Amino acid sequence: MTEMAGILAGISNSGRRISTAARNNKKLSLVLLSSFLLAAIVIAAVSGISASRKNAHSASHAILRSSCSSTRYPDLCFSSIATLPDMAANLASLKDVIEASLNLTITAVEHTYFTIERLLLRRGLTHREKTALHDCLEDVDQTLEELHKTDEDLKMYPQKKSLSLHADDMKILMSAAMTNQDSCMDGFSHEGADKKLRKELMKTLTNVHHLCSNALAMICNLTDTDMMNAGYSNERRLDEHVEEDGFPSWLSAGDRRLLQASTVTPDVVVAADGSGNYKTVSEAVAAAPIKSSKRYVIRIKAGVYTENVEVPKKKTNLMFVGDGRKNTIITGNRNVRDGSTTFKSATVGTFSNLESSHFTLR
Question: Which of 133, 158, 265, 131 is nearest to 219 (CA)?
Fold first, then answer.
């Protein structure tokens, strides 16, 4: 009996071991199956995200390529943006592409500024070369301001203003930005030494010029399409800019009253004979307020003023009023032959809002 009991106990213990092993195997199988399913789900999710990103990337590139097709330099337009993943990843419209293009152009202009500053440190530069490089710094500074204003206008588009005013403002700003590059290069077109600097600047200035051209082309495409869809015509655009009193719609009421008045009360008077507040126009400009929010009227009495008047961009809202074309004459004596650049040889160099009437510039 004792032997039989031992055999039965052994069989029972063996059964329990078999049962426990089976349960362990079942648990292991469930764990393995769960792990497999989880891995499959993760792989599917990652694949889905990857596919989604790939589709979004392809869509962005398609929008970019389509937008760039309207430009004069499509390869530059596409490659310059496509090679920057952060910039090219979320392009959903032509407006997005234009904004990316403007940001890229601003960066390129900033690099140009640093290049010019570096050239100014070079030894042995002639007076005209230094003057030309400083002219370029002013051109670059103006370009940056115009690009930032364009970007601000684009962010508001098509709100705040009419479609036609938005279009005209952005086109004018971008056209000016392009012209600034040509103005800079004109300062290096006279002597051999000038031409060496011109060659060094040519690459960066040409790149900026092409980027500005591309942005302008896309702005034209965007605004022209929107205006056509809105039913604008050339005649309607012209009518929209002119009010019943004959002045453009963007001219403020205060400026209209100034232009309509038979006499204008000046803020200061310039008189060569010493009977006014200042003897020269340049002195009056230097004393004018910075960033004026209203028109600052400078009356220039009859006389010949031999000076080159430069109006910095910080001197805004200046208005010059003379005593007649044959009586008030401003003439300068700078020229390229004496070492001045074309940029500095103009009689009146202006970088701000400037109204002029009833006097002669020579």
Answer: 158
